[in-house]
Design goal:
Helix content: 25-40%
Largest sheet: 6 strands, mixed
Number of helices: 12
Structural class: alpha/beta
Number of strands: 21
Distance between the termini: 19 Å
Radius of gyration: 20 Å
Mean pLDDT: 94
Length: about 400
Amino acid sequence: MGRFQVVGAAVVDGSGRDPVDVGVTVEDGRIAQLGVASAHGERLDAGGLTMTPGLIDAHVHLGLSSPIQPQFSFRISAAEIAADIFATAGATLDAGFTTVRDTGGIDGGVVTAIAKGKVRGPRVLSCGPVQCQIGGHGYYGADWEPTELWSSHHVPGLCALSMMSGNADELRGNVREAFRRGASFLKLCVTGGVVSAHDRLTDTQFTVEEIAVAVQEAAARGTYVTVHAHNNEGIRNAVEAGVRCVEHGTDLDESTATLMATRGVALVPTFAVVEQLLHDTAGAGLGESARDRVLGVRERMAGALAAAKEAGVRIGLGSDLIGPAQDRRGEELALRADLETPMEALVAATKTNAEILGLSGQVGVIAPGLQADFVLWKGNPLEDPKLFSDPANAVLVVQAGRVVKDLR
């Protein structure tokens, strides 16, 4: 830990302000000051590099790091699943992401192993298993398999993709179980999905009253509910029930976007997974039907992003990558930069995501008193946002004051 200074970098602090040439002093894991102190400490020369806050991915699936279909059909051992999860965690850090929100797939043991430093990886906030309606998005058992056997796919302490509920009482019990296992927030699936076996994107799932049960249970623990939601009706149901965040939001319309803004509900679009499924469905361990389901989603999600911006919705950033190919997580920033500006994409992946995750004032910007999470990039990703896509361009990654990657 100790004290060190970074000099010579162009500092983009994550607030949206223009880059400045200023030294950064780190002490005991936190930003001590902007500006170089004369006191002792190692001095890192970062001339020609660009410093940004450590990136935050608000929608990851570390527990889905193996080929999807083989994992769900018990053709991969627990040892291999664990190896894939931990490899993805390390690759996430190497791509410049120092914090992630896992929106379903890992069990509490993974979070603990990373937090203890036994495995390289980012700071992880997790919902544990996703909460799903019986037969809805998140259930990947065979048609003949009784729903009650789905939990046998879980590997306690390692991966637990989803829990099935048939009514409000079952949902209440399941979310309490998720919290018992260490969840720090809840995620519900309230519409069908792209990677689904038993539903369509147009399906709505869980009633307003059922969703409100999860909101009530989360509020009792001082936390919140986010929802997987593609169609507008499902999004509106969730907002009416009191959720705090919407994932994907593909068919969000202007009216519902206005309601989200009024009630302070955030949106986390996920473009990288759409590109992944359009161009390398097999690489994720999925069949061509997944590609067919994603056709048109990119364009509609871009329209939803525009509607949300116009309404004043807080908009974060998430990649939603699945399967083994999760090493180019920064592609999400490059894709967003094509729809907004590179600075807006960076702010979404830092300051705004920290706010959505409840970590504002801890991470997300480079400012005195905050955790020393930052990345030194080769070149200027505000001028060429494709630099975010290649982990090799993240030449130095610092997490909580510790150098966790150094290619200098």
